[in-house]
């Protein structure tokens, strides 16, 4: 959420040697993807903070006043779903999803980029499928509620689908970055 | 279940899931293999006394052409997703509770309403199935799948640790695990707090003090092996819960007509009754075990019980209102339910 | 293709994808998806993506993970963790590996009571490893001490996995939980001794504190850690005395750290935002793996490999101890690829009756199997504890962390063998309480 830090990161990621047209389109797209994921990540941070507060109030209410909050458990569960799906993209952008590169890091740079294009494509497909299927799941959940509170579950599944879609955009970005690096090296 | 590691390969993904386990027939291309999942332990009575005997009987009567392989313990999907997995084919068939999908079976869950559960699990199960058979609007609630049988549990009691519930006052402020929406409303109407929690998590939740107890059938003491964490059982026939065993519609349609007919002859009421009897048997065993373990059984005085009943009225009223808003004659269904349960006594 | 073959190919593909730098969670998801579409159908596999993803994340009991991590982040981002390790160093810094030993102790207690290996590993990794860095501990030692401590949580009561074992086998749960106590504490001590021996063999992995610390200094170092101790006691004590759930303990602990650091003016807006941000990224990394593991686990269930492997071993005509050894070997292998609870659910219906038939004690076996499955969280390719630590310490290559836990794994294997030779270590307490 630190904007100057973000800019530095963006600059580091943006390849510099394309024709001005592609570059500006690419950086616009990159900025949009960062923006979207920053928004969902910000929402997730808020949800996390509220989850902490809600649970604390619930415990205090139950322990000292015998008035726990109805539905605190299910709201916490649904809050967890929101923060997981809304922060997938930022976790990817900051390179925090765990992967093992001890073999690939020994490959020549160009081979690494080509490999990244292919693996990103496979990953992109599975993530897009997941987003689509969360929408399908949301449809199947229509009319179903969370239990104690009549929260419609399908809305949460739709939000999850949006989060996963933004995650997909970050993977696409990584793939395009590799494409541009490969193309760029070809030209040189 | 199987000692043979060399599984037959039908190589035919169209004919449904071919997770073959043992050679049932000489010509395996003709044999259908279906997965049947549930969230409980393999020792659960609905597995050992209903689903497994059903699977064996189907194999036998269809001469090995139709087979069900049971996957316990939520291996193919946990409590909340069982129904969805059956609809989409993640499991070909499965057992679960209507109560885990709030809002899905609003009409059939008339069975969940307070103080209707006046009978054995077998009685209540047959009534549950009968309601399905008689009311097209209930059948509609199951139109995404093939219902094999619906059943119910023995009347629910208030199970607690620490605090005995000997009067209506005692229940106030307790955190009680609820099996369904309707039971949740009932618990709330008593002035207690309902907590939705999958049954397999009850032990842990009671031990850690997350809940003070739950509204559960006596059989559940044994089903979930929670004798250790329970001190008191307040009997009162507060309500019951609905359960289903259903099958993915496409998978059902793959079964040849003559075999479908054989299976149709087994499912419905007879299996509902078997499933109910399994719970009754379990109730018996659980009751005896609980006595041995020193769990105290509390019978409420009539005046106290009446307070519970009065407080719970509102749940039935709300349900009737909800039915009316949907254009369903709830009163007719409720009256029929009462009548069917009366008949059994 | 038979389901078993599809399952085997799936495992092979999983290894390939992971080694090609595809994120672990998504590798599991891809392979699970492909395998299920082959065994079942494309439609079924597609639907699983949506359902499993949503239902894995929409789970109250897993919210313990972000809340405990948040507590750890508040402590470490505001310097509470630093003060704590400073105090520990003042008190026992002159001992070889004092900080690492203290870490094993702290994470054992934390894991034992929170019941979550994942939450503990993430929290303690964040607090302890940067501090050990400052005292020039080698990363193999600092990371492995956190990993080792985290595994003890499922042996020392309360243990969710032993409760599930009890539910699956109808073994009485009370005695089962008690049975884990002595082995758990013993193993914690053995881990500490192991660390000490490692340091004796290679003194440079954990430099000894040179300075002489006066008692006055020791006492004054405690001044700034009282807050940590209060929060720790509150959240852990709360679970222990049944006042709240682990998730609630996490929330209370996080709220406590938040308030303490707010009042003492350690918490700035930036540190608050950083703590939330760090918590989310670490939690989400864990959840992506959990989601992938859910789908992959379903593929392994459908492939019937776990059932076939255990059934095959059971059908062999050899001595009971050889069968037992092979079963544990199978569990060890399955543990590399699957989550412990899923393995038990799939195999216990076959293995448990067999174990009883062979004349072994069912209660004792519960502890043994938990020990063996526990090793799985430290082994590739699905070694969640290691991935979590790797997510916290970015500058240490993951293979170094895996290398660092090898001694820990060897100790766990040796300890399991010890429990087989002397089953009384497990059964002594439960027998005592039953008679
Ligand atoms: Na524990
Ligand atoms: Na592993």
Description:
- The complex is a heterotrimer of chains A (188), B (345) and C (435).
- Chain A is 78% helix and 0% strand.
- With 188 residues, chain A is mostly helical.
- The longest helix of chain B has 24 residues, at 269-292.
- Chain B contains 13 helices and eleven strands.
- In chain B, the strands form two sheets. Chain B has a six-stranded mixed β-sheet with strand order 7-6-8-5-9-11, sandwiched between helices.
- In chain B, helix 1 links the parallel strand 1 (32-37) and strand 2.
- Helix content of chain C is 79%, strand content 0%.
- In chain C, helix 5 (80-92) packs antiparallel against helix 12 (215-223) and helix 7 packs antiparallel against helix 8.
- Chain C is globular.
- Classes of the chains: A mainly alpha (188), B alpha/beta (345), C mainly alpha (435).
- Chains in contact: A-B, A-C, B-C.
- The interface between A and C is large, with 60 and 60 residues.
- One sodium ion (NA) binds next to loops of chain C.
- Residues 112, 115, 153-154, 156-159 of chain C line the site of one sodium ion.
- Chain A: It is found in: Cell inner membrane.
- Chain A: InterPro entries: DctQ, TRAP_DctQ.
- Chain A: Residues 51-178 form the Tripartite ATP-independent periplasmic transporters DctQ component domain.
- Chain A: The chain crosses the membrane at residues 33-57, 69-93, 114-135, 155-176.
